[in-house]
């Protein structure tokens, strides 16, 4: 299936999710194990593991051999800061979605190379990072300006609160 076919399939999946949930994802319950993303392309939800302390953030997705297309890891920092990641000991390509304190996507780094020690600069004033399988961000069309929703995002600052 070509790129256009994959995008169409993901759009259909997002539409099905929106049809299943009354009011679409906007009405879906916020929970610790899910990150919701919306943009002009539609909405999606990822089942996530949360990394919200130094040990969990340091481990990240290292040594993970495969991950479901609807899964990811959500990194939560105490405050906005410069974000730099690398792929040392990470076995699968990842898309890194860098998000500010309001839940707004600032930058997407697509298809980070497995096992690379090259630093990936996510920018300044980043408080959250969503990692998903490489290629997922492009298939959905996730990019700067899109919005994330999760209970770990400070609700008084969130552009899309729970």
Describe this structure in words.
The chain is α+β, with helices and mostly antiparallel strands and 162 residues long. It has one domain (3-149): Jelly Rolls (Sandwich), CATH 2.60.120.1140. The chain is 18% helix and 38% strand. The protein has helices spanning 3-20, 54-59, 136-140; strands at residues 34-39, 42-51, 71-85, 94-99, 105-112, 120-133, 147-149. The chain has a 7-stranded mixed beta sheet with strand order 5-4-6-3-2-1-7. It is globular, with a radius of gyration of 15 Å. Residues 3-24 have low confidence and may be disordered.
Summed over residues and divided by their number, the pLDDT gives a mean of: 88
Radius of gyration: 15 Å
How much of the sequence lies in strands comes to 35-45%
CATH topology annotation: Jelly Rolls
Shape: globular
| Name of the CATH homologous superfamily | Protein of unknown function DUF192
Q: Which series of helices and strands comes N to C?
A: HEEHEEEEHE
